């Protein structure tokens, strides 16, 4: 188990390998489909983003509403492939160095990750109550009108994740199933 | 004629929504425990262990098992000698859903229009409601909170009758391979066979309401369920799609008579957090 501070340096990003289990402590930003669409539209128009994402890690999640007195509700990952149309642009132009979600990514994203030293982590889908315990702070940064799809700044302590795709193209979504596949 | 008030139905549905979102049903939890014993991958076993810890936290803290508290899908059986006083049955379900999602701090995930106006309705309604009329004066409301991730990977094929059993096995395994990690495995696989273009997906969803792992009452179909389960578990997809020997907990088949030219097959996936519950009034 590796303890990693987020955001991390480009060197740290390149040192991580698919299959590494990590605990992340620091700051993450949430974004789902609708926020990705808006951020990418601004980049394409050459306009500034409402939040500086240089070197940051994005978490693909739309938490359930917090109960009174709680920081967040359940907050597990959503399916990442829906973000694949947008992620290469955010890696190349906004400078993100990490993404957290669930499920595999398409070739265009993996290529951009290799070029720019970005890491993709898997969080455990359907374990949102457990993951919420590692979230100690949450505030809306922009796009509050999107409700659960707004961009939030999260403060996390020992957020559990697994390096799924590394900066060299190592991919646990390929190598893991390959190892356990039996002849059909 | 027996009478139930609109309010009584709506309140029961409200409680059912909160209970189903925050408390993993006993059959699902037993399936996860069984998988944790059987799984060959150490990482897979660890992930399955996290599902169990997550279920404990959700139940204790009364927070949703998963932030995607889903589309509210109802299978209702209403006796023809029962009358709902003060409003329609459908409206009682909608009002109960809205109240449950608000009071239970569940995530509202329904948008008004699929294409041009994807504005959140803010209530998690409309729900998806299937009603069946029965003899007697009882009311049974079965609710499934169906997450988007596994639903998105579901599929339908209008098979030729000549494709037979092997066609159904191959289509299910192909659907699973294509779906991979996105379904949040291990999954429960509902397969609807027969009926029309619109019947098969309905049957596949209905199959997911069955107690997890309970076999089909007919031996031929029970054997087919087992054969498909074994084939799916040879894919290596495993918990969260990160590799392992348990990709599905169970396969449930539901069937209907069909046209001489047809054999529709629908495959509906349910994520590992299969949340369903029932209230009888």
Give your account of this protein's structure.
Chain A has 184 residues and is of the alpha/beta class. Chain A is built from 6 helices and 7 strands. Chain A has helices at 10-15, 33-44, 87-94, 107-116, 128-132, 172-180, and strands at 2-6, 21-30, 57-59, 98-101, 119-122, 135-142, 151-165. Chain A has a 5-stranded mixed β-barrel. The radius of gyration of chain A is 16 Å and the shape is globular. The model of chain A has no long low-confidence stretch (mean pLDDT 96). Chain B has 281 residues and is α/β, with parallel strands linked by helices. Chain B is built from 8 helices and 10 strands. Chain B has helices spanning 6-22, 26-38, 42-61, 89-103, 148-151, 164-179, 199-207, 219-232, and strands at 2-5, 71-79, 82-85, 128-134, 139-146, 155-159, 187-194, 248-256, 263-270, 276-280. In chain B, the strands form 3 sheets. In chain B, strands 4-2-5-10 form a 4-stranded mixed β-sheet. In chain B, strands 6-9-7-8 form a 4-stranded mixed β-sheet. In chain B, helix 1 (6-22) crosses helix 4. Chain B is globular and about 55 Å long. Chains A and B meet through helix 5, strand 7 and helix 6 of A and helix 3 of B.
């Amino acid at each position: 188990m590796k303890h990693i501070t987020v955001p991390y340096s480009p060197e740290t990003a390149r040192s991580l390998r698919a299959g590494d289990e990590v605990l992340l402590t620091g700051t993450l930003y949430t974004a789902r489909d609708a926020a990705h669409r808006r951020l990418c539209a601004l980049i394409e128009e050459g306009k500034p983003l409402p939040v500086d994402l240089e070197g940051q890690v994005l978490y693909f999640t739309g938490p359930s509403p917090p109960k009174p007195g709680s920081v967040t509700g359940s907050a597990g990952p959503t399916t990442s492939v829906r973000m694949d149309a947008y992620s290469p642009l955010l890696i190349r132009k906004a400078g993100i160095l990490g993404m957290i979600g669930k499920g595999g990514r398409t070739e265009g994203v993996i290529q951009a990750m290799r070029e720019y030293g970005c890491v993709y982590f898997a969080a455990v889908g359907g374990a949102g109550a457990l993951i919420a315990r590692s979230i100690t702070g949450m505030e809306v940064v922009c796009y509050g009108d999107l409700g659960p799809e707004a961009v939030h700044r999260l403060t996390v302590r020992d957020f559990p994740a697994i390096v799924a795709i590394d900066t060299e193209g190592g991919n646990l979504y390929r190598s893991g199933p390959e190892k356990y596949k039996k002849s059909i | 004629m027996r009478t139930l008030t609109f309010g009584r139905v709506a309140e029961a549905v409200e409680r059912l929504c909160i209970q189903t979102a925050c408390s993993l049903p006993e059959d699902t939890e037993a399936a996860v425990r069984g998988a944790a014993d059987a799984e060959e991958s150490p990482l897979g076993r660890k992930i399955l262990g996290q599902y169990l810890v997550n279920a404990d936290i959700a139940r204790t803290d009364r927070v949703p098992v998963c932030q995607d508290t889903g589309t509210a899908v109802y299978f209702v059986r209403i006796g023809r000698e029962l009358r709902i006083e003060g409003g329609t049955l459908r409206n009682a379900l909608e009002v109960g859903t809205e109240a449950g999602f608000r009071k239970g701090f569940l995530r509202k995930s329904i948008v008004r229009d699929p294409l041009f106006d994807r504005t959140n309705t803010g209530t998690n309604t409309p729900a998806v409601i299937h009603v069946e009329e029965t003899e007697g004066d009882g009311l049974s409301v079965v609710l499934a909170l169906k997450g988007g991730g596994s639903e998105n990977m579901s599929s339908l094929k209008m098979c030729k009758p000549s494709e037979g059993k092997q066609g159904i096995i191959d289509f299910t395994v192909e659907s699973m391979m294509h779906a991979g990690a996105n379904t949040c495995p291990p999954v429960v696989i509902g397969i609807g066979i027969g009926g029309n273009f619109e019947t098969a997906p309905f049957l596949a969803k209905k199959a997911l309401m069955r107690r997890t792992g309970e076999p089909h009452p007919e031996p031929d179909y029970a054997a087919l369920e087992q054969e498909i389960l074994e084939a799916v578990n040879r894919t290596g997809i495993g918990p969260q799609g990160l590799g392992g020997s348990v990709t599905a907990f169970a396969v449930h088949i539901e069937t209907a008579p069909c046209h001489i030219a047809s054999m529709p097959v629908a495959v509906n996936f349910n994520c590992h957090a299969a949340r369903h519950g029932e209230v009888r009034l």
